[in-house]
Amino acid sequence: MDRLEKLNNTRQRNISSFRKEILKKRFSLELAEFLATKKAQDGEEQGRVSGSVAWRSSRGEMGAQGAANSISESKGHTFEPTEMEKTSKTLHVQYSPSSNIYRRVSNGNTELEDWESGVFTMSNINLKEEYDWKKVYLARGGPSEAAISWRFDVSNTGLVVEHIDVKLVSTTFESGRIVWTLCDGETCVLLQGDGQSARITEINGARVVTLKAVLSGGKGDVAWQHTQLFRMGINDMDSYPWDVKITLKNA
Q1: Cα separations (Å) of 33 from 26, 47, 172, 227?
Q2: What pTM does this model have?
Q3: Which of 124, 155, 158, 226 is deepest in the core (most CB within 10 A)?
Q4: Contact 145, 215 (CB under 8 A)
Q5: C-beta of residue 180 within 8 angstroms of C-beta of residue 168
Q6: Radius of gyration of the chain (CA)
Q7: Cβ neighbours of residue 141 closer than 8 Å, sequence gap 6 or more
Q8: What phi-psi label fits residue 22: left (phi over 0), alpha (psi between -120 and 50 degrees) or beta?
């Protein structure tokens, strides 16, 4: 164990203390699972559920609305340009479920912790971790349809959207379906979750933009697992399967 700990410390010496803490917690959980000899109970074949909504919901602390795993529009997060971003006319944000961090590239790589912190609206979405397959992703909390959105607002800056570069990674199995849209209130553009960067010019001149994913379909008791957002390796700290870069111009 000491040798393994030393190896981990060596490999992690160039990452932030926050990410080190995430890896440390995951290692402790994996070790506990490995040493346990408990027989699997009903429902334990599903992927592990984590994230603050899942935790509070399981403890009955979310209330009627929270139990539905939803955030009202008035309480959701909106990305707005900082002074640095106004000057550069760029708003560039990335998200990784492995580190569970939003990285604001255009604002000196500042970080926003926890996937929920950057979400505008959501319904029936959880962060799932599969310790057997070493994978992490966002997925539905059950077989019913789910949705999640992110909002960007430059209304108070004197700037408007010139174009948007978007890279999204989503995975479906069986009859699972994920529909991505980018809308400005008047125009909506369908996007692909194939991991390829796409430049969107159709909403040139927009001030408020919403990126949304709707997850549905799948088969049987594990239908929720047939639609996955941002699936990646648990220890892959250098990839960002959600990447939005908005280039701005004077109104």
Answers
A1: 11, 14, 28, 26
A2: 0.73
A3: 226
A4: yes
A5: yes
A6: 19
A7: 49, 54, 69, 124, 125, 126, 224
A8: alpha
* Structure-token match 């992690």, residue found: 12
Backbone angles phi, psi at 184, to 5 degrees: -120, 15
Q: Contact 149/121 with Cβ under 8 angstroms? A: yes
In this prediction, residues 147-156 reach a mean pLDDT of 97
Residue with tokens 């599903």: 46
Determine how β-strand 125-130 pairs with β-strand 188-191: unpaired
Q: How far is CA 157 from CA 76, 148, 151, in A?
A: 20, 26, 16
pLDDT digits (tens, 9 = 90+) for 184-241: 988 999 999 999 999 999 999 999 999 999 999 999 999 999 999 999 999 998 899 9
CA distance 104 to 224: 30
The 3-state DSSP class for residue 192 equals: coil
